[in-house]
Specification:
Elements (H helix, E strand, L loop, with lengths): L11 E3 L6 E7 L4 H6 L3 H10 L3 E7 L8 H7 L7 H13 L1 H4 L4 H12 L7 H14 L7 E6 L5 E3 L1 H13 L1
Helix pairs in contact: 2-8
Protein name: Thioredoxin-like fold domain-containing protein
Pfam families: Thioredoxin_4
């Protein structure tokens, strides 16, 4: 089954596509563990991205779990076609997660519109279906699920600790 070892291009890309390492994170913007995963973005991931050693791809996963439903709502507003605008917003939404998660669904829609100029994106349902299929293929039963591909090889699940070690070896080179 070759489908299980490939990932589509669907997602939010940070860094260059031909980086030797590609980190794909199946995530949900309402997940506190996902937010914590990016706490060290500036110190651990960003240097590798800026040095063209790492491409980060975030795949917002609409997971049918009560605590993640507000994230699923936010995902509808993310603009896949304007990643230069959307990528920094995603990182900010992780930082402000505790704040916006307290809002009602209608308040979240207003918050996204007023603070970030985001509107619901009609194509996002198709993107969501693609990402859900990939999450199932990689047995991503929880978020975040990190998949690391080295030099174009098939992606494999990694823990945050394994990722940290991998990034440390890059920094030494």
């Amino acid at each position: 089954m070759t489908d299980a070892i490939t990932l589509s291009d669907t997602g939010f890309h940070f860094g260059v596509k031909d980086a030797p390492l590609k980190l794909t994170v199946i995530t949900n913007l309402a997940c506190p563990h996902c937010s914590a995963f990016f706490d060290n973005y500036e110190t651990e991931l960003l240097p590798a991205i800026e040095n063209k050693q790492l491409e980060l791809v975030l795949k917002p996963f609409d997971k049918p779990k009560e605590g993640l439903l507000k994230g699923n709502l936010v995902h509808l507003f993310l603009d896949y076609k304007d990643q230069a605008k959307t990528n920094p917003i995603i990182l900010q939404l992780f930082k402000d997660q505790a704040e916006w998660k307290q809002l009602t669904d209608n308040e979240i829609k207003t918050y996204l519109s007023e603070n970030y100029g985001l509107t619901a994106q009609p194509d996002n349902t198709d993107y969501s279906l693609t990402i859900t299929q990939e999450a199932v293929s990689f047995d991503a039963t929880s978020v975040p699920t990190a998949l690391l591909s080295r030099k174009g090889a098939a992606p494999v699940k990694v823990t945050q600790e394994e990722l940290k070690k991998e990034l440390e070896t890059l920094a030494v080179k």
